Batch of 2 targets.
Target 1
Amino acid sequence: MQTGSNSRKEQIIESAAKLFREKGFEAASMRDIAASLGIEAASLYSHIKSKDEILETICFSMAGKLLKAIDEVNDIYFNAEEKLGMAVKNHVEIVTGDMDASSVFIREWRRLKKPKLKEFIKLRNKYEEGFTQILVNGENENVFEAPDKKFAVLTILSALNWITEWYDPKGKMTPDEIAEHLTKFILTGLRVKTLHS
Amino acid sequence: MQTGSNSRKEQIIESAAKLFREKGFEAASMRDIAASLGIEAASLYSHIKSKDEILETICFSMAGKLLKAIDEVNDIYFNAEEKLGMAVKNHVEIVTGDMDASSVFIREWRRLKKPKLKEFIKLRNKYEEGFTQILVNGENENVFEAPDKKFAVLTILSALNWITEWYDPKGKMTPDEIAEHLTKFILTGLRVKTLHS
DNA sequence: TAATTTGCCTAACAAACGTTAGGATAAATA
DNA sequence: TATTTATCCTAACGTTTGTTAGGCAAATTA
């Protein structure tokens, strides 16, 4: 169990992610996952410890990718607007890059068992803090206005997370375009330039 | 089964909504729902036809409330900015008014069985169209700028739906304040008034 | 060649699931 | 008072669930 068997384990997790996304974590059975790989349910246990372990792997893998990305953005010394743009772009790329895992990450993390659940929530908060940091920067640079930072971050992340609900890899919008539109939307909103009344 | 028994049925649906929210539709069993009411699982079937029926009732009840609200907004003859503000306010009020049902409505609708699922998606699309209509009005009035209307609506709704993930009735933010902040955020975004560079 | 590891199998388990059948009790209605 | 209705019960059903035990064949390693 060093390098070769990892490959099969990754296949299992990939198939599981697809099914967890389609049917939900509880509704997708070990027999379903096994069937999608053409093997018996019991055979899965040569590679994984439990169904819960699969969910944990998916959720923490995604969390790791996102955290790494936001840390990198915050470490590089750019202005706040650029940082926000990069953070959005990274998030969109990661999410659209693996829609199955992302959907599970966003919808099914609640089904994690207690000790892992707490750990996961900690990572989530860390990610949110990464965005808060950018908003603080923006205020110091006098380019952002966000009295309630927690609220602003939640609203921004809602748009980012909601992508898993509608993004279609075969659709006409590329991840880059989504990121661009989203950044523009977050920065300027709907109203046209001129203020009136 | 005319008016009196409805009361008990509503109690069941209310208890079920709470559990569906906490544990998810599949993880919350009929025995769990019954236990939370102090009765046996089999007794539930004097009042409801099936577990699926409970989910359907919750999802379609919420959909009905939201659709009614957006239709009212679009029927009343105001300008687009006012309409958007009212639509947001109504949505926030409905969602925060019943967090259990709302969470189920947003997270668990996927578990609806096939004929009902299609019906539900139709209602969802109708609601989205209600918002699109407002954006179209705004463009005609020359106060909104949204080249990709579908994208804009999805982004707005993401913020509205995400409320179920963080709103705390005991928190310091009232539904009205949330609606106000959200409307402002959608209309003007983060950037401060003056454009620079 | 011999020994070990990998990847799958069949068989089975105990538990939990949604749901039905049939009956009891108490309240509402006639 | 007689009858109906509402609400709950116990017992049981057939299925599906995640998981374990034990074994077998092929590939890998020594």
Target 2
Amino acid sequence: MVNSAKFDRQQVIANATHLFWARGFNGCSMRDVQQAVNLRPGSLYASFGDKETLYREALLHYASQGMVALQALEQQLVCPLAVLRQFMRQALASSLADAPDKVCMLVKTVHELGGAQHPLAKLARELLQQMANQFARLLQQAKQAGNLAPATDVNALASFYQMQLIGLKSFAQLQQNPALLDTLLQQALAILPAEKAH
Amino acid sequence: MVNSAKFDRQQVIANATHLFWARGFNGCSMRDVQQAVNLRPGSLYASFGDKETLYREALLHYASQGMVALQALEQQLVCPLAVLRQFMRQALASSLADAPDKVCMLVKTVHELGGAQHPLAKLARELLQQMANQFARLLQQAKQAGNLAPATDVNALASFYQMQLIGLKSFAQLQQNPALLDTLLQQALAILPAEKAH
DNA sequence: ATACCTCTTGAACAATTGTTCAAATATACA
DNA sequence: TGTATATTTGAACAATTGTTCAAGAGGTAT
């Protein structure tokens, strides 16, 4: 008999992700986590390892959600540039809603642990780079479709998208005024290349 | 006899600020602080109160440094728009150098403690708003000098500057590549209004 | 049932946390 | 110098931290 656990592993990770996202690695104790996932310490440690290992799992879970969201848009929309623009809008919309915290969990992790070259910060940086690579891939498609100037540096532009996104979401944490946030989003989108009219 | 303390109060606050900035509120213990400022617990508590009070002092110290930097630029440069542009360049340059951490301490504080409506996060938000108000004041000057369209919403534009700055500094924490960061800075500056040629 | 394996439980551990306080030391003024 | 006042010291506190582990519970196969 193997793995006859009562709990739903994915649900546990999802709950832990929410808590870690909202309060950070140092901001919540293992007892907080135990309560949030409804597991006693023994079960939690036996199934998920220590705090750092569990947080790592949470980071991966969070990042994969972002990837899924991007892929979903890719299937709905034809133009890669439209995908990116819609992804930005969507990201800020979730900032306005009751997300556990409005800032990207990967960015928060780097901010909290990045100074000490923490392995979790390293992972978060890698996952952010993966996201930027997806942006670059979409931009490359747009370029080949003739929607971007041939000389465009898609990697640099992808980083610029990511920088705008990080700025918007961080700012949303400071100023909850929806009208102002929408203005900023429009300004940011105005910078970025749009699908050509036809 | 009053205040015959041996230590330099300002130096203690400066050292504490460095540590809190680099490692966050939850990331460093009072023992870490005691070591960094070279004070035994009794002296530290007698002179600065508890951890939260000391962190508050650090936030104020940090924010005033930013204000001073902006005012220094204001005395060097005539055009208010040039002041803002130079402030952006300077902020990113200090990100490339060995700042304790590359992200604004106010932003880091809101990220770490903001979800729980922590009083320190509230203060950090207020200080960020003060900075945005300074930006708006400079933009208002530029508008009156005819360097901005009369219809410009200076408060919204000030927020946009701040959002760009937050994005740049956060991104600098992820990607240390100086060439890429410089490209992003140029792109961000290209968006923002510049002094008219004459 | 009985034996066996797996998972769960919660008490317990050592280390660390923020903070206090009585004793020791230093300083100022007579 | 002697006394009073201000400051520094470091041991100590209770609470919380991350983590472990022996004992119990639950299910499956013989």
